[in-house]
Design brief:
The structure is a single chain. This protein is 5% helix and 30% strand. The chain starts with a helix and ends in a 7-residue tail after the last strand. It is mainly β.
Length: 679
């Protein structure tokens, strides 16, 4: 959907510019921002950064807690304008894979381990670089097939690291890297050499098997970095949405890190009638559905022995008559005992999901300072633009949450949840309602057309149920927040998250027996068969005749929330139209964005997920942009930072994303201050 948005926005701006230069009176000049989304504020330091925060980046989310915070402070608000490229590396990932270049996304975030910078390419090649020069140390290629047609692109967000403290450090596989693949293998490598750890599984690999026979090989894959707790490695899966009712279960698998022996499984759709969550599924419906998979990143609290899962919606996404009830543990944060896989607590962010509102982001395990005390919390950002902050031990609200009545009246066969959970202190970070009078357009006719489209859809705010006539879905199922997740500054209690702010529609169709194939376009919208349900689905972005979003800009924002109170401290637009408008016209409208932020003790936020090709640095206190540098391809990844031999580096993968239509590439780029030399 986003790629269509990009192509059409360029066309629309060409029309706008042409009409403007011709002096046409038809131009309705509304390219100024809808500033109701913009908040100016100033974050305050409440305490010194406590000990324990590293200057390194040892896990996909910075650390296993998912803070995306580094104690590095060599690069600061005062000197960031001097930042420049220190080295650049090209992976060569597309060599021999040119045919699937348009099905790929370079979403990786490297980690720094064993004095090496390690990451995975779109095709799960694992590469080790010298952190100071970018020179290649070694690489491992799992030879993933290029004919699997992955439902979630060829992509790999990261690798994970484990060290064995019971053997000599020079022993082969005394430290290991783990990576998942598009064909659902979990692979173990020696962290120093990249050689397979052949004692793991079969010759270094474990094949993660789905519960159902796949319709095609790419229906089921692994895209996110595995989680590691103690001597256990844990992985979720990415599964294609809305194909069928009886789809593969989203079972989470845990293995012994040395042998690959299965330790436990956890199915978020309860199969045991004695499980308390079974009561939230009518009759035997939990056996007649699938998914609720963990496709995003799992967090780990080693001190408590807990892992935290972000689960997705059950299948099919837009009809739930086959799965009446709240459908717990789907759409939830689920805390498991890392050793046994037993549920410790769970919190559901969406009851009986009908909107593809998965929990898309890594649960953030943060220390919030309030009333002179440190409180351990779990903060979950969501596709709906809401932030849920929970006590880490119990899952009870740390910031208050209430159940509110939501729109009712679903299609025949549907049984809706009468209420949904809403945070009380923190308003939605992006809009939840779009009325005809709010329609955006660059000409008066464009605006009128959008207004008519909005009026024709059922739109009663968030959680308006899917309908035969079409329902407005706002935010669209790409977010709000997405897999890039959030970052947290422990000195300011500040959660920072980037979000998209565009609308879409979903329309149910009575099954006729003569439907298009899965993924086809139907009247310009995506089609999904939802086999086993009485309805099929068409969905798409809500755009004007000229192709611009009908929702007003900014279409991309970055927001800072004080987690001690829930207050929104500041909210700023991010991204310009430079790489989607004719002639490089850089209108600061904000753009949809994929990829998360990273925060440093130097008072900076680094981010590059927008649709223009830049890595940017923002002031943590205000969200104002301080610096940017042009990337050779789309930067739809999360940056990271580290200190190596006395010099701080900031690294970003620039390789584009097939869903956004941004330029593909194979670049890994490191930045540093020019006047700091490594000894």
């Amino acid at each position: 959907m986003i790629m269509k948005f990009i192509r059409l926005i360029g066309l629309a701006l060409i029309v706008f510019i042409g009409v403007s230069f011709l002096g046409g009176s038809a131009v309705w000049v509304v390219l100024g921002l809808s500033n109701d989304l913009i908040i100016e504020g100033d974050a305050k330091i409440v305490r010194a950064v406590p000990p324990g925060y590293s200057t390194q980046w040892s896990a996909y989310g910075g650390d296993k807690l998912g803070t995306r915070f580094s104690a590095a402070e060599q690069i600061t608000i005062d000197n960031v304008t001097n930042l420049q490229s220190a080295w650049q590396f090209q992976t060569g990932a597309f060599k021999g894979r040119e045919a699937v270049k348009g099905q790929s996304a370079f979403e990786t975030t490297p980690i720094l381990v064993e004095d090496a910078l390690v990451f995975c390419t779109q095709f799960q090649e694992v590469i080790s670089l010298d952190p100071a020069t970018g020179a290649e140390n070694w690489r491992y290629d799992p030879q993933v097939p290029i004919d699997v047609q992955p439902g979630n692109q060829y992509t790999c967000r990261g690798v994970s690291y484990w060290q064995d403290h019971t053997v000599n450090t020079e022993t082969l596989c005394a430290s290991r890297l783990f990576v998942g693949t598009v064909d659902s293998r979990l692979i173990s490598l020696d962290a120093k050499t990249g050689k397979l750890c052949t004692d793991f599984g079969v010759a270094g690999e474990v094949k993660v098997k789905p519960s159902e026979t796949l319709r095609w090989p790419g229906e089921y894959q692994i895209t996110s970095a595995p989680a590691i707790i103690g001597d256990i490695v844990i992985t979720g899966s990415a599964i294609s949405d809305s194909l069928r009712t009886k789809a593969p279960f989203g079972t989470v698998h845990a293995y012994n890190v040395r042998t690959g022996e299965l330790k436990w499984r956890f199915n978020p759709i309860p199969q045991n009638p004695d499980d308390p969550a079974s009561k939230s599924w009518a009759a035997d419906s939990a056996k007649q559905t699938g998914h609720a998979n963990v496709w995003s990143t799992i967090s780990v609290d080693e001190e408590r022995g807990l892992v935290f899962l972000p689960t997705s919606s059950p299948s099919p996404d837009y009809y739930g008559g086959n799965r009446v009830g709240d459908n717990r543990y789907a759409n939830s944060v689920v805390a498991l005992n890392g050793e046994t896989g037993d549920v410790v607590w769970h919190f559901q962010t969406v009851h009986h999901d009908l909107w593809d509102y998965d929990v898309p982001a890594q649960p953030g395990l943060y220390e919030v300072f309030r009333d002179g005390e440190v409180h351990d919390v779990v903060a979950q950002v969501t596709k709906t633009g809401m932030v849920f902050v929970l006590d880490r031990d119990t899952g009870k609200p740390f910031l208050p949450i209430e159940e509110r009545a939501v729109p009712q009246g679903g299609v025949v066969g549907e049984v809706l949840s009468p209420t949904q959970p809403f945070p009380i202190n923190t308003p939605p970070l992006v809009n939840h309602r779009l009325d005809p009078d709010d329609a955006f357009g660059i000409t008066i006719w464009d605006k009128w057309a959008c207004s008519d489209k909005i009026e024709a859809l059922r739109g009663e705010g968030l959680y308006t149920p899917p309908s035969l006539g079409g329902t407005l879905t706002y935010p669209f199922p790409g977010g709000g927040a997405n897999w890039g997740s959030a970052a947290f500054d422990p000195a300011r209690n500040l959660l920072v998250v980037n979000m998209s702010n565009v609308a879409s529609f979903a329309r149910l169709n009575k099954r006729s027996g003569d439907e298009p194939v899965f993924g086809a376009l139907q009247d310009g919208a995506e089609f999904a068969p939802m086999e086993g349900a009485p309805y099929t689905l068409t969905r798409g972005l809500l755009t004007s005749p000229l192709g611009l979003p009908c929702s007003p800009p900014p279409w991309g924002v970055m927001v800072a929330v004080d987690l001690s109170t829930g207050e929104i401290v500041w909210r700023q637009k991010i991204g310009t139209t430079e790489d989607i408008a004719p002639g490089g016209l850089a209108l600061k409208l904000g753009t949809p964005n994929i990829g998360g932020p990273a925060i440093t003790q130097g008072g900076l936020i680094f981010h590059s997920g927008t649709l223009d090709y830049y890595l940017r640095a923002y002031d943590i206190n205000t969200g104002h942009e301080l610096w940017k540098d042009r990337l050779p391809a789309g930067g739809q990844a999360t940056p990271m930072t580290y200190v190596y031999k006395g010099r701080q580096y900031v690294v970003i993968a620039a390789g584009g994303h097939s869903f956004t239509g941004t330029k593909p590439g194979d670049y890994v780029i490191a930045y540093a201050l020019p006047n700091v030399e490594s000894p």
